[in-house]
Amino acid sequence: MRILETYLAANRCATKEYAWEPIPVEGMLPTEISGTLYRNGNGRFEHHGVVYKHLFDGDGMVSAFRFENGQLLYSNRYVRTREFEAEEKAGRMLFRSFGTNTPGGFFKNALRLHFKNAANTSIRYHGGKLLALWEGGLPHEIDPDTLETKSRYHYAGALLNPFSFLDRQINPEMPFSAHPKIQPDTGEMFNFGTLAGVQQRLMVYRVSPDGQAKVADAVPMPGVTFTHDFILTAGNKLVFFFTPVQFELWKAFLGFQSPVESISVQKDKPTSILLIDNGQRETFETDFGFVFHFANGFETETGQIVVDALTMPDFPDANLSDANGASSLEAPAGKLTRYTIDRQTKQVQKTVLSHCPVELPYINQTRVGKPYQYIWCIGDPEGVRRPYLHSIVKIDTHSGHAVVNDLYPNLPGEPVFIPRNNAVGEDDGWLAYMVFDPVAIQTSLHICDAATLQTVSIATLPHNTPVGFHGTWVPSNNPRG
User: What is the pTM of this model?
Assistant: First the structure.
């Protein structure tokens, strides 16, 4: 079965936008679920006749599922970035993307440094704001009810570049990554951005529960390292992995390549680990392994730092179209790997917790930065290697045991955990995830029991849309999210 080709063809461009349309549900929709699931992702794989070359390039489209009195309502809307509106008005592609240059070759791309803010990677509700996130630029504030784009959001100037004149010419605004972490006990949000300029910098941000942001640190970096995620512990310690996967930006700036094509991987070099503890910085080393996403991290009673990462043997290829028009997109072979950092000996111990190939991890958000037991991911059974990931996997970090719900040939998206009211256990709740069925050519939202992975209901969307990247659950009785 040509699963990927069917998926791409069915989702070339989701054009219709719905406003809280009731959608049919098969099975029993849990009446206890009350709130809104927001998801973000690329809304299309083709733009004005140009097929995007990379999975990360499509314009962000927010999908929302409102659980209300046993009914499920669906709404969706593209994020109206400046670039989106300009291209819609022009009727053609105007801006370069992470993996796709504009048509016309070298002379149409040389020195064109205005890349599209796709606003397509994640979405979070914090401090009274719903923000669509993309790690290369500013967030966009989204109206939680209408899904209209309210503005580019820089936290009252906190994300405006404070460095030299030349730095500001290169990048007047500072990026805000797609993976902020919210302290479950205090409501404070931590995030980062990698800022290119005369000096490459890792910018660290702290945002109070009411949405007041400040720069907490600016760490010089030796190069433009691909850094997508990080770890926050309950003691407000931050951990970053700098793998030797770097952009050779001069190639992109001169127009020869897109940013992703300029990436250089040096597997013979170690991964550098940065620990930031109340402004103090410590560095450690471990062997090569590329990490898109971390599951969680925490401090032990003896002062060690534990980091659970989905480690891959190489930088994954997510190309939708190469020079010959063929796709090389394949499932990342990430394995849940625990790194134990000993601050006294400067040693890093590495242990594989599960051999299931997995990606897009999600945990119970009350356990962020704390010892925990369960992770939910997309993945496949141990020993099964297919071109794409077709399963929902629950991993017990204590035992390494994995429960697998194999949905083949369907393609699932990230499972978002929805806790039960007055939950008695860490896995007491449900998972909500998008699924594309390449046989029926149909997109749906699945709800399953988080403890057993047994499907309890399936809601069919009124149109096909890519399953997206990341989402967040905002309960009716606790809008902090």
Answer: 0.94
